[in-house]
Structure formats: structure tokens, C-alpha cells
């Protein structure tokens, strides 16, 4: 993917994070963590060249997703 | 799923995975301790300057963009482009540390020390450890810029992206999830 496009996506997601930070509640918290996951995926795939759909992609993204769900769960308890 | 399918040096991926695990453990511990005093944690977190963290995120992803450009330039033999990219990436790292220093100074002036509240213990440990990685990463970028060997530049850029990756995962639990 084009590096400039990845960079703009990351800046856009950072803007989304900033906007969501002002919204209270568990749904907004889930959205904040989902945005963090999208940023992480953009960095892993776009900058670190981890091939999307490969076994290694899943080896990083699946545990990361589970961990973010755990953090959300601990937050809303 | 073979080791050679990983882009770059496999040892770099071992480092990336282990760093992610260390920070994940720290953040999870913070989220666990928060359960003992959610209101206190929220009140402590509300004293942070979230906009500075957002600014630092923009700085760090931009810096990562320049590191990625440097890596690409090096691969196509553009030594000047690679050096410029690495220098701009390192400059972004220095900018990140400058904002962090201003943030820490403001926190300390407001009396928010490491022992003010358990939240601040985690805050200083996690963000301080990350800042140490940024400082080390600047040194790595400078070192790989000297010889400009493709594999070394790729490894240096990978370390830098790992620092970036950790920050985007650190941001919501430490600064935003009140």
C-alpha cells in the first residue's frame, strides 16, 4: 500500500481517537479500543510489511484483538 | 507459517513480540488495579493533558512514515533519500520527547508525582519506559544511517514502528479510558 495513504489513515484515526475521547460510556470505550486496533493493523501491515491474511498476520492480530477486548472488559466491570 | 515468511530479520520480530507482551502486561496490571478504585483512577487520569498525548501520536505516526520512506529509499539505492528519511524520523522522535518532557514538567509542577496515586505509578512507569524506547530508537536510527545497509535500515525502521505501535496501544488505557 502507498505509504502516504497509510500515514493519512493513521492521522485520520488519531483524529477519531481525539474526538471519541470526549464521549463517555462503554460504547465509546469500545470504539476507542477499536480505533487503536485499526491503527495497530495499519502499522503492522503498512509499515512493518506483515502480509495481510497470512498466518503471521493472524498470530499478531488475533491475540491483540483478544487483549483489547480484555482491557475493555476490565474497564466496564 | 514459516519463520522465513516474516519480513526482515526474525529476531526483530521476537523483539517486537516481546516488547508488545511487556507493555500489554503493564497495561493489563494497571486495568486490574483500577478495579480497586475506579473513581480514583478516573479522577487521576482526568488531570492528564490528553491533547498532548494526541499531538504526540500525530508526531510519532509521522515519524514512522518517514522511517518507512527511508527504508524504501534505501532499498532502491537512494542513499540521500534514506538519510533524509531517517533524520526526519529521528527528529520526530526528538519532538515526541520534547512534548513528553513538557507534559512531565507540568504534571510534576501540579504535584502529580509517582506516589500521588497508583494510577500515576503506572502512568510514569509505562510512559517513561516507552520514552526510553523512543530515546534508544533515535540512537538506532542514527546508527543505521551511518552505513546505510538495507537490512540494517529495515531493522532500525522495524524497531521504530514497534515504538509507534506500542504508543497507539498505550494511548487509550493510559490517557482516555476514564
Automatic annotation (TrEMBL), chain A:
Cellular component, GO annotation: plasma membrane
Q: Which InterPro entries match?
A: Cyt_c_oxidase_su4_prok
Report keywords, A-Z: Cell membrane, Membrane, Transmembrane, Transmembrane helix
Q: Where in the cell is it found?
A: Cell membrane
What coarse category fits the chief subcellular location reported for this protein? membrane
Transmembrane domains' residue ranges: 57-75
Q: Does the keyword Amino-acid biosynthesis apply?
A: no
Question: In its keyword annotation, does this UniProt entry include Membrane?
Answer: yes
Q: What is this protein called?
A: Cytochrome C oxidase subunit IV
Q: Which organism is it from?
A: Paracoccus denitrificans (strain Pd 1222)
TrEMBL record, chain B:
Question: Hey, which family's this protein in?
Answer: Belongs to the cytochrome c oxidase subunit 3 family.
Task: Please classify the protein's predominant subcellular localization into one broad category.
Answer: membrane
Q: Which organism is this protein's natural source?
A: Paracoccus denitrificans (strain Pd 1222)
Per UniProt, what is one Pfam family of this protein?
COX3
UniProt name for this protein: Cytochrome c oxidase, subunit III
Cite the Heme-copper oxidase subunit III family profile domain residue spans from the record: 12-178
The record's section on InterPro entries has: Cyt_c/ubiquinol_Oxase_su3, Cyt_c_oxidase-like_su3, Cyt_c_oxidase_su3-like_sf, Cyt_c_oxidase_su3_a-hlx
One annotated Gene Ontology cellular component of this protein: plasma membrane
Name one molecular function that GO assigns to this entry. Answer: cytochrome-c oxidase activity
Amino acid at each position: 500500500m502507498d505509504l502516504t495513504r497509510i500515514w493519512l489513515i493513521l492521522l485520520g484515526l488519531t483524529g477519531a481517537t481525539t474526538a471519541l475521547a470526549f464521549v463517555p460510556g462503554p460504547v465509546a470505550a469500545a470504539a476507542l479500543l477499536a480505533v487503536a486496533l485499526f491503527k495497530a493493523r495499519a502499522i503492522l501491515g503498512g509499515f512493518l510489511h506483515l502480509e495481510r491474511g497470512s498466518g503471521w498476520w493472524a498470530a499478531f492480530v488475533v491475540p491483540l484483538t483478544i487483549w483489547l477486548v480484555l482491557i475493555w472488559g476490565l474497564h466496564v466491570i | 507459517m514459516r519463520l522465513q515468511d516474516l519480513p526482515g530479520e526474525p529476531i526483530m520480530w521476537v523483539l517486537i513480540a516481546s516488547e508488545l507482551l511487556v507493555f500489554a502486561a503493564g497495561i493489563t496490571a494497571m486495568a486490574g488495579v483500577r478495579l480497586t478504585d475506579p473513581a480514583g483512577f478516573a479522577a487521576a487520569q482526568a488531570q492528564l493533558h490528553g491533547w498532548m498525548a494526541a499531538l504526540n501520536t500525530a508526531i510519532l505516526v509521522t515519524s514512522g512514515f518517514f522511517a518507512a520512506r527511508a527504508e524504501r529509499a534505501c532499498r532502491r539505492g537512494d542513499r540521500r533519500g534514506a538519510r533524509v528519511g531517517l533524520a526526519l524520523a529521528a527528529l520526530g522522535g526528538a519532538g515526541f520527547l520534547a512534548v513528553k518532557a513538557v507534559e512531565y514538567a507540568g504534571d510534576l509542577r501540579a504535584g502529580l508525582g509517582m506516589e500521588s496515586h497508583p494510577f500515576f505509578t503506572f502512568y510514569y512507569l509505562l510512559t517513561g519506559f516507552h520514552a526510553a524506547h523512543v530515546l534508544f530508537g533515535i540512537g538506532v536510527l542514527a546508527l543505521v544511517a551511518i552505513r546505510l545497509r538495507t537490512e540494517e535500515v529495515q531493522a532500525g525502521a522495524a524497531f521504530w514502528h514497534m515504538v509507534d505501535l506500542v504508543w497507539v496501544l498505550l494511548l487509550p488505557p493510559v490517557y482516555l479510558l476514564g
